[in-house]
Amino acid sequence: MADGRGGTIYQSLVTMAVVVLFCLCGVAGAAPVGRVISGYVQTSGGAGVGGVEMAGDNGAGSAVTGADGAYSVTVPNNWSGTITVSKAGWLITPGSKVYSKVHADIANENYTAYQPTISGYVKQADGTGLSGVSVSASGVGGDDDEREWVL
Predict the structure, then answer these.
(1) Is 53 helix (H, G, I), strand (E, B) or coil?
(2) Quick one: DSSP state of residue 51?
(3) In what order do the strands lie in the sheet containing 111-114?
(4) Half-sphere exposure of residue 9, counting CA atoms within 13 Å on the CB side?
(5) Is the pTM of this model over 0.90?
(6) CB of 85 closer than 8 Å to CB of 93
(7) CATH of domain 34-114
(8) How far, in Å, CA of 32 to CA of 135, rounded?
(9) Rounded Cα distance, 111 and 46, in Å
(10) I want to staple 41 with a disulfide (CB 3.0 to 4.6 A). Which of 73, 111, 117, 138 is the partner?
(11) What is the spatial distance between Cα 73 and Cα 85, in angstroms, rounded to a whole number?
C-alpha cells in the first residue's frame, strides 16, 4: 500500500522501528567509558599524605594525592591491571594493588604511609663504638610486608 510519497507504509514502519531500536540500544546498551578507583593514603594516625604518585598500568590513568591524601584513578571498563604507589622518603603499604575485570567504581582503596627512621650504633667487633662513620641509605628491597634498607 502506497503512502502517497512513493514508498509503502510497511517500509516507513520498518524504518521507524529500526531508528527507535538504534536509539534505545545505543543509549541503554552503551558501556561506560571508564570506572573510578578511589581512596586515601594516610599515616597510621589518620593524617592524609599529599603528593603520593598513583600509577596504573595497562591503559589506566594516574593521579597524585591531594593534601588530604585523597586520590581517584580512572580505569577502562572491565580493566585488569595494577596500581602502584610511591613517594620519595616514604614507605607505603601495600606498594601496589592488583585488580581484575573492574566493572564498577571501587571506593575506599586505602593505603598506609610511614616515614621510616633508621637509628642505631656502629660498633667494632669488641663492642666499642666507632666514631666518624657516615651511614646512608641507598635503596629499598624486599616485598610489601618486609622492607629492607640497604646501608
Answers:
(1) strand
(2) S
(3) 70-76, 34-43, 111-114, 91-93
(4) 3
(5) no
(6) no
(7) 2.60.40.10
(8) 53
(9) 11
(10) 111
(11) 12
